Amino acid sequence: YCYGGRVSYLAACRVEDIGAAASFFEVDVQNSGSVAQLFKDVKHRKFNDIQYRYLEKGIRYQGIIDIETSDFNPYKNFIIGYVMVIRDLVTGKEVLYKDNIQKKDIAEAVKNDSFDFDKRLLLQLGKHLSKCDHLVGHYSSKFDIPYIRSRLLLTDQGDSIPQYGQIRYGDTWRMMKNSIKAPRNTLKNLAIYTHTKDQKTHVDYEHWQRIWFKDSPLWNKSMKYIMDHCIYDVKMTVRALKKIETFNNIPMAMV
User: How many Cβ atoms from other residues are within 10 Å of residue 48's Cβ?
Assistant: First the structure.
């Protein structure tokens, strides 16, 4: 991973190429030309200003995440599903990952007299988190990230929590609050005020409550509604982030 200051830093950088193992090396980055030199063997277009700003801070892989949960309290509740877009700031490639609990996850937990319906899901989510240098969501510093950590601890998978300093964090809610004027700092308003596509769907709690009951004939329909809702939220966050990151600092919080 690359860590460092804005203008000049000594960085230990991990570079991954298709078919090649990760290699580590040290380099003193003095300017944007040096950043471009770092990735001369990676096919990419000419870097723009925002790419330089991220890469100069050691951020190549940025995850934009949203989770859906059975309740706001992680104790005796669970993550229904998550969606994450991993954005490669070098190539511009974006990959969407998603997962949700399955009926067999519920059956396995019930067999063990447990509410850990999300144990398998959390293991996969932890692997995706480990790929990222930077993690962003809307209100994620207050909800998504603490909830994920709590559920990992409660399912005895604390080893999957990124260690302090491994990932930097940003929050479009905070960026919105600090840089644009809106009546409320919701994701829907962020889409409206950045003039990007608003795909926000209604939270019908019947769908969320139904997930507890795997034998319901409407279980699959409810799960699809919830995951579509989550996908729309992440896509809205990605579009709005690309608008507001140009006039915000690159968030480098460790939460």
Answer: 10
Check whether 255 has a pLDDT greater than 80.
no
CB 33 within 8 A of CB 46: no
pLDDT, tens digit, 9 for 90 and up, residues 194-239: 999 999 999 999 999 999 999 999 999 999 999 999 999 999 999 9
Residues in the chain: 255
Beta bridge partners of 29: 9
**Residue at token pair 């929050």:** 171
Of the candidates 252, 248, 241, 1, the one whose C-alpha atom is nearest the C-alpha of residue 137 is 241
* Bridge partners for 15 per DSSP: 23
Residues 36/37/42/48 CA torsion (nearest 10 deg): 0
125 neighbors 151 (Cβ within 8 angstroms) = no
Whole-angstrom CA distances from 233 to 79, 206, 236 are 16, 19, 5
pLDDT tens column, 3-21: 343 333 333 344 443 333 3
Cα distances (angstroms) measured from residue 129 to each of 135, 198, 211: 8, 27, 25
CA nearest 177: which of 208, 142, 145, 147? 142
The pLDDT tens digits for 127-164 are 999 999 999 999 999 999 999 999 999 999 999 999 99
